[in-house]
Fold each of these.
Amino acid sequence: MNRSIVYLVGAGPGDPGLITIKGMACIKKADVIIYDHLVNTSLLKEAKNEADIIYVGKQGNKHTMEQEDINRLIVNKAKEDKIVTRLKGGDPFVFGRGGEEAVFLKENNIPFEIVPGITAAIATPAYAGIPVTHRSCTSTFGLITGHEDPTKDQSEIDWGKISTGIGTLTFYMGVKNLPNIVEQLIKHGRSKDTPVAVIRCGTTPAQQTVTGILSNIVEKAKKIKPPAITIVGEVVKLRDQLNWYETKPLFGKTIIVTRSRDQASEFSEKLIGLGANVLEFPTISITNPDNFDSLDKGIKRLESTDWIIFTSVNGVDSFFHRLFNLGGDIRDLKGVKICAIGPATAERIKEFHIRVDCQPPKYVAESVVEVFKKIENLRGKRILMPRADIARSYLPEELQKLGADVMEVVAYKTVVASNGDAAILESLKDGVVDIVTFTSSSTVRNFVKIVGEDNLATFKEKVKFASIGPITTKTAEEMDIEVSIKADEYTIPGLTKAIVERVG
Ligand code: SAH
């Protein structure tokens, strides 16, 4: 069967959450993705591993590829019997040359579908607290190119009609041309007191909004660079009441998350939800242990095990993967009691349909010892602890002192993530980063290893360091890193709360 099809998909205005469900499905099933400059590249993470991902971006006047070549590329890829997703910023049919691409596909007999996206003129004012229509101000709304060459004799835009004939006017690609746009509007009868907003990088943490009136906006917005939307009309005044996004507690803050790639998302999503610009800089990779000998031994003696203490989500995952790989299942845990350190660990255990029998109130080893002292005489009890290769030995030692037979097994290994992202390192040096977060001692040690002590010295004073708990803080302080944000509760929500209290 011939698979050839091209989906012309609107990726939305910037916030990756603003793509449609259908658009996302097209990313997931594509053999080839051809995307533009304004597409948020984090969406590409959803592509198949083997997908061919091609950038054909346009940035201002710098075209990486001419439109004819892009058209040809799309057609050629589709002819190779491929599912092609052509991803464009905003909506594909709004100033995106999507129409031209569709016509070319039609001419070449390639089947295509259009997946609309949220266009910048609707989304970016929304994120700036400006509704594009509002009953008391306007019932008309226009989308206009601001790109038109002002020296052109014959304007495609009928300034006489739109200046006073439409309530809300939005101009795409109009940053350079703003003086001409303003001049035309005033010349054709729009009051020079009409409110105006210029919104750059709307719906992203880099969003910048400048407001004014027609007579002063050119001066006020002169530092604004593309991409920006200009919105003209009385609706702009509603921003005074409705500015919801730029007032989020962490808006404007750039925060580095140093957890492993697999574990970063929960924390990153929380911070992004609070308006932060999150840079993921994984310092840890989780891998299999050098061998499974000790873990396998532990699994073999489950029948005679009284407790398993899980100290991390990774410990839970690697324990169960190995158990299942060896042909076992959760029935092998019958009669074994389960202790979880920390709520995330407990949650992961529950995902395997297993009850957690003990969850110490504090998420450090010391608290576990206290709890066990209360709930059970550990003399002779067999405890299994699936852990990382470099875990602290305090907990097993203390449990042994209580008479327990503790078997520590290496369930996974944490290694230094291969290399740091050079662009993030530059952001640190340039003072763009506000906070670096540490969620374990390994994140501290590995962060220092990856960035290097010399580099660290250059930005140490410019950023704040945040730590999830006392052990992590101690490790940081031993490495001469001053921790100014400390979680009261040693969890990701606890750390997030401390960050908001300190800088929000
Ligand atoms: N198809 C796109 C528009 C492409 S033209 C859409 O439907 O949104 C490119 C112009 O869109 C930019 O010059 C800018 O005016 C506007 N634009 C796109 N994304 C934007 C954003 N996040 N913030 C502000 N303007 C944006």
Amino acid sequence: MRVSRLMLVTLRDVPADAEIASHQLLLRGGYIRRVGSGIYAYLPLMWKVLRKISAIVQEEMDATGALETLLPQLQPSELWERSGRWQGYTAGEGIMFHLEDRQGREVGLGPTHEEVVTSLAGELLRSYRQLPVTLYQIQNKFRDEIRPRFGLMRGREFIMKDAYSFHADEDDLRRCYGEMDRAYRRIFERCGLQAVAVEADSGAIGGAASQEFMVTAEAGEDLILTSEDGSYAANLEKAVSIANPATPLPEGEVKVIDTPGQDSIDALCNSQDLEPSQVVKVLALLARMESGAQQPVLVCLRGDQELNDVKLVNAISALQNDGVLDVTPVSVEQVANQGLSPWPFGALGPDLDDASLEGAKSWTTSFLRFADPTAKELDRFVCGANSPNQHRWGSRWSDLSCDPQVVDLRNAQAGERCQKDPTQTLMARRGIEVGHIFQLGRKYSQAMEASFTTAEGGQEAFWMGCYGIGVSRLAQAAVEQHHDQAGICWPLAIAPFAVVIVVANMQDETQLQLGEQLYDTLRAEGVDVLLDDRSERAGVKFKDADLIGIPWRLVVGRDAANGQVELVERATREAQVLPTDEALASLREAISTTTSPTVV
Ligand code: ATP
Ligand code: MG
């Protein structure tokens, strides 16, 4: 490809709306253009990168025996009604774009394909003899993200590889999950990415294993906790730890203390000379359920601990056997709007009476009560007295007439000890989630009545797994991990071109001829080569070459007269002036070591 024919428009300035380096560089390098919020055009250079990544993904998926397919993006609401997910995906913070067709039937734009694929499997896979089967596809997904940002990292239309497997039993699902785990590691390694596998939240289904693959980078939206030796790694959503011990409260009788204006843990501790770990804080929240219920929730945490929203949502939905649309803190106004007497916010105790909910307009009239183990384990503590500006000092759980469910609901933190190996301390790192593998079990197959005939002649629901890779996010994550001040440094396997030939002076006949000759030679050998044949100043071309980040550069300049060219490695900037033949030989050797699939 010739740069003069590439429609290449590079930008000198950093685009105002791009916050992180990879987003800036992809815009500046002419890889992507923003079309709307979370909507991007992949320009020809980017499309080459995406095709290379897709080809690696395809090779590794095919190697596991998975079958490539292409499923519809337009999905009838009935399928989602059958799985019970229509409501959750369209109401509240639901992320599915949905619309009515001309006949007034509702359809959604696929954010994911469990429904479509499970219904197909139910129709096509009748016997255990046909199992196992894994289907995969690479296509655009649509998600009306609450906060689309960082370019391709969180788009509203993006490219995903999604795979779904069907099994006769759980053991076979586990085998396939293990195989996918290995395939994913190979994919990320071949793409030149450093990715860590972390334990991930499995949602409310419980029990089923799930693992995310994170590209570690400061710009990552996810927080992960790892032990020093790396033997434990988990997304914060899921991570557990041994909390640091609480400071015991001094001896003394139970008493009520006046705490005017001390309605935060900090204010209370400062005024009363307490440690946060001596306090039980009580959070009042409202859970909106898929069934329509509005369920008030009281959560007791040790004062020095933070609530983990994901753990809470899982606990609520497990206890209620109902999906959670969202959970938000209860406000003074909401209490008033329900027609209730004011609650003593800032002095709530674990035993706040259900009478506080009596006569509520739309809320359920009893609390769901939870306590994190670190709160429940406290022998004596300070907590709200359920009357404004008053707390109780020296309370014991046995003195309080409430019996909260004890569930791990706190965020694990860096610096705490690892549960799996208490000699290890946890460290925090940021990561970009590029893949997720998941043992779904029989959640969808049971809900959608997708079953097969067993060897014994019975009917059983499929065991299922699902496996996603964010192909477009991965491409940008690669830039986040591989760039410098001057631009992108693509890993060879996913670079749009392996080598760029820069002819320094297009007016110089010798340079021009040698450049063209090198271009023809490399193309004839099947090398993915770009020729910068623009009549720009050499400096401009070098800057652009740095910016777009082609791994190898052959500079045809003044030395062309002596049959010499300069070979430069983009990532290290190592440069050698060599006779043309030697330069070609070095280049061939450097680019042959890659495991890049052939994409033209
Ligand atoms: P996240 O937690 O980042 O929102 P998710 O858990 O919803 O992602 P999955 O449903 O597991 O994502 O989708 C599979 C993969 O698709 C993710 O691992 C991620 O790499 C990618 N992905 C998900 N949402 C987006 C998005 N909005 N833009 C780009 N890639 C995405
Ligand atoms: Mg995920």
